[in-house]
Design brief:
The protein contains 21 helices and 16 strands. It is α/β, with parallel strands linked by helices. It is an enzyme of class 3 (hydrolase).
Length: 613
Amino acid sequence: MIDLDELELIEPYEQTAEEEEPQLTFAQLGVPGPLVHVLNNDHKTTAFPIQADTLPDSLEGRDILGRGRTGSGKTLAFSIPMISRLGEVDFTDGMSYNQFRKQVRNIQHKHLYERQQDDFTPHPRGLVLAPTRELANQINDVLAPLADVYGMSTTTVYGGVKYIHQIRDLRAGADIVVACPGRLEDLIEQGVLTLAGVKVVVIDEADEMADMGFLEPIQRILRQIPDSAQHMLFSATLDHGVDKVVQEFLHDPKEHAVDEATSAVDLMTHHVFEVKRADKPALIRKLASGKGRRILFTRTKFQTKKLAKELTQHGIPAAELDGNLSQNQRDRNLQAFESGEVNVLVATDVAARGIDVSNVELVVQVDPPQDSKSFLHRSGRTARAGKSGDVVTVMTPDQRRYVKHLVKRAGIDWKPVKVTPEDELVLSLVGEEADPIMGWKLDTSKPLHGRGHGDSRSRDRKRSSRSRGRKDRGMDRMDRPGSPKKTKKKSKKNDKFADAKFQDTKFKDSKKRRDRYEDRDFDRRDHRDFDRNDRRDRNDFDRRDHKNRRNFDRRDRGERNDFDRNDRRDRNRSYGKQHDNGGKSHRNGHIGHQSRAHMRKNSTPFSKSRKRH
């Protein structure tokens, strides 16, 4: 157990537009040459403040406790030391890049042989825990090119997608896993992978995961990781139990902070607009009509969908991002925003920490958030990487008191301004308006690129049609010294397990068993459906026959009753005409009980009366 008060603390760095701090290059910070080469190709030559502060300690293997706002460069701050430590080839002085790659290929052959063993269980060596699927994909996009230099592969694990793709990537030998705690714990319980071989673990946005209820799953996951592993935890605050995680799992951590989580950012300008409720839709459309990228935040999923539809109908193409969308839809909408196909993204708080898009000029909070922490994380989508940005919070007169309390708790100056859609201040934030595009619709026919599992798989395998299946290559095709020869037999060509060198015996056996189970279940369903149909037909026949018999009995009984009544009536009438009833009157020839008794008593038999005449 450690005392948080005794941690060695580096003074927070507050970046202003007027300061000119000397910027260090990654090479000066001790980053290995191959990684420096990749970063230079991506136009990343100098380090951000949190990277410059943490890299010397993290590259030495120390546990790190990073505190700072979003957009400060934390992803690269933990990605570089993770790849540097997990890389099994040292880039020494005097070594050429070709020699380095040759040693990397030898290591790849070694790992490929290990995966062919029957008792192989996926055991990643690096683990990154993230709260949302979007953030996991963002981290994977940063890690993948760095890991590829050392011949390592990455994959993402999160809910909302099928298990089979994630299991296939893990069994293909993923070295680094970027995961959400829920799905990762599920796969561990199924025995798909083990964390006994993890050497570096990163907990990103720990406070957000604690708010989402992932604190206990995180603790259970971290207890399965060896104590000797390097732990790096990044969090804006240490509340909601995050401090307990730090005390239990981080050993003598070095704390680094860029700035306080609740401090205002000088490069970010906040505006609080008070508008009449009737003018609010027009104000939102005006703020969304500019050419630059802008994100509009709402509080509910329904409002997100409704606002995106309304903006599109008014000629402002907008994509939505909320929890009701499937993972494929979320990736496609986010890619359309990143590529510039749309300039407006309407999102709920699910995107407040999961979006890392550069050059976002304006953030509009259509509805005030629930708390000050969400306010800061929404605002953090702009003014990233040292660039300026504006944040507009829209409120109606009845929300004035609530927004005032919210803004002050976030550390922002309370300066509300009453505006209309055509005010000069509003027009200055809009800038140059984009031409309206009527009838716009997102093109869903284009394939996704660089998002989710597809990006990590494309680095390690050749994707072909479904008829041929996916063949695990195990390493980069260009770097492999001898690729297996293609067989001429058609049956071999169409068999994804034909190449013994790259086949996965466990996966093959499980696939065959699953096929047998599916065939058996299909036969059972087929027989069951036949029995149901046959039973239904027989029941319908029995019902019809019973109904017919019942109707026949009713008709027959009715006819017999009518016959008896008519016969009795006729006999009574004829009997009443032949005999006097003692002065009693008859109604319609009907003779009552007393009249008939009287006649039987006073009358003479028919035979005797006939003789008398």
